[in-house]
Design brief:
With 331 residues, the protein is of the alpha/beta class. The chain has twelve helices and twelve strands. Strands 9-8-10-11-7-12 form a six-stranded parallel β-sheet, with helices on both faces.
């Protein structure tokens, strides 16, 4: 890709590989339309180049987005709408060079049998580094930021590479007290609906029959938090999702299951706890207690990091603004 000088408020990006032009533009120029919508610039494909017009700031954002997406394609990664929106929402010059270069070079790319994954924004890149560098990691922030999905992807990569022998995924079942006795069916039928997002993440990365064989063999376990009591989880990648719904006692129990050669991750949003009023979230308590402890890493996401539909980010921003006004004295 060659970045040509601006001429009469028109920037030109020349693409050396014609095949990449088609992939970069997307079906029916879908990717270009998403970038235009996010930046306010106009992008016109002209042979082996893109002509970018509009205000200086809009052109810079559009040019940065195209460069970032071009780098993803050169690294062998696919481009999906979420990748385009993420690239268009964060100018390249504002990203930390270490993580940007690492994503392009492949050092923080995760390959699973069904997906090749790379960070879609700076927060995700930092999170993947946190997962790699710490035995205990926290991914904290609103839904839709990829914190659980990336944690599962990292755990899958550890399992497939032989770095760990088991993969254990857990959630507090239903409410924090795990009151599931009134539901119909056996124990598996009672809790499976609440663990379904973890199954979905696994099936998105590995073929379903392979996952089920590994579950049958005991190499992969998906279970409610209560099932972790009294165990030592050695040589395992362990994830507690929706950790804001665990009590302080449950969280302490879970954290102390960490065994030799294991990696543990807790994900959740402390602002969305379903605990009874007045009950302290174990996730919030652990974050305040363990911050700065050697071997513990914390990555925090905000609504700006949402990689689902852009409307989700706008919805979250409205809720966050309202919650902030309620916390302000006199607000």
């Amino acid at each position: 890709m060659t970045d040509m000088p601006s001429d009469n408020n028109l920037d030109r990006l020349i693409i050396d590989d014609n095949a990449l032009i088609v992939e970069l533009a997307g079906p029916h120029d879908r990717n270009l339309a998403l970038i235009e919508d996010a930046t306010g610039a106009r992008i016109d494909p002209r042979g082996n180049e893109f002509a970018i017009s509009g205000g200086e700031g809009a052109r810079e954002r559009a040019r940065s987005a195209l460069k970032a997406l071009h780098d993803r394609l050169k690294a062998g990664l696919m481009i999906e709408p979420a990748d385009v929106r993420a690239a268009a929402g964060e100018p390249l010059g504002q990203r930390k060079k270490k993580n940007t270069d690492a994503a392009v070079s492949g050092s923080i790319i995760i390959k699973t049998p069904k997906r090749t994954l790379a960070p879609q924004n700076e927060s995700q890149a930092t999170y993947l580094e946190t997962l790699r560098e710490n035995e205990l990691a926290f991914g904290v922030g609103p839904a839709g930021t990829g914190k659980t999905y990336l944690a599962v992807a990292h755990a899958v990569s550890l399992l497939l590479s032989g770095a760990v022998e088991r993969l254990i995924l857990s959630r507090p079942a239903i409410e924090a007290g795990e009151r599931i006795g009134y539901l119909p069916g056996d124990m598996k039928e009672k809790v499976d609906p609440y663990l379904r997002p973890l199954y979905d993440a696994l099936y998105d990365m590995m073929h379903k029959d392979y996952v089920e064989r590994r579950i049958e063999a005991g190499d992969i376990e998906i279970a409610p938090l209560a099932f972790m009591r009294g165990r030592t989880l050695a040589r395992a990648a362990v994830i507690l999702d929706e950790a804001q719904n665990a009590t302080v006692a449950q969280t302490k129990m879970f954290l102390t299951r960490l065994g030799e050669g294991s990696h543990m991750t807790l994900t959740g949003d402390p602002s969305q706890s379903d605990l009874p009023r007045g009950e302290i979230s174990g996730l919030a308590d652990a974050l305040s207690l363990l911050g700065g402890v050697k071997g513990v890493g914390v990555s925090t996401f905000t609504s700006r990091d949402v990689v689902r539909h852009p409307l989700v980010a706008r919805i979250l921003e409205k809720y966050e603004a309202r919650d902030a006004s309620h916390r302000t004295p006199g607000g």
